[in-house]
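--- STAGE predict ---
source: upstream dedup step, 1 unique chain passed
mode: sequence only
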Amino acid sequence: MSLNSNVIIVGVGGCSRSGKTILVKELINQYLKIKGKNINFTDICDSIHLDTYANASKVMKNQVRTSYGNIYENWEFSGSLDWDNFYEDIKTKISEINTKIKNSSNINQKGILFVEGFLLFSPLMLNTSNEIKYLNLFDYYIFICLDKKLAKIRRMKTTTVPDDYFEEILWPEYIKNCSNYGEFLTFQKYKNGKKVLIIDGNKEYNPNIMALCILKWMNVFNDFKLIDQNIYNSLFTSFDIQKNLIKKSLSSN
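--- STAGE serialize ---
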């Protein structure tokens, strides 16, 4: 809880179409169900999405010509985002949640802010003091890995892009931005004492079951009867196994 001891900050990053947004929505849904009806917990649980901070003018300055001769605007690189505004809005959200907690009937409650985005933990952000602070912001780091083949299938079924855009821009940017994630997440876990979870996005987990398992891991509740023990054990393997998921994703063809 880097900015406020009353607000738990959960970062959810991952490859395009890995299921980040769906997971965050389900985490909030399950959180609200668990907490019951006595207090309006909607007021102290919120989310913010990095994708909404894409800056078209910055993208226009980073056009890429592929081997096919096509020129595309590159929406996949970290410089396309308004990081300063994003960081300031996170701080504003935290302040708003804290105020609502103070004004609620139960001042001992903790608020939760879920922060989600494709480039959320990008090591390319290490340029200013604000961005370094941002990287250390989260109490929980969740990263969803996805192999290239499945990422492409899912992308083409939803927001279709030209094949050369995916092959020469989208996936290479993912490789470049995420190449140091294993080292970064290891540092957060063992040096900063943060909780880290790396998920195999190639597995078809039921989102609400996975959300419940993650909330149990976050100590939102203690009753193991509320979760699927097999799914929980599948998610929370050794950290070495989890790190290998990143290596596998980055090396997939």
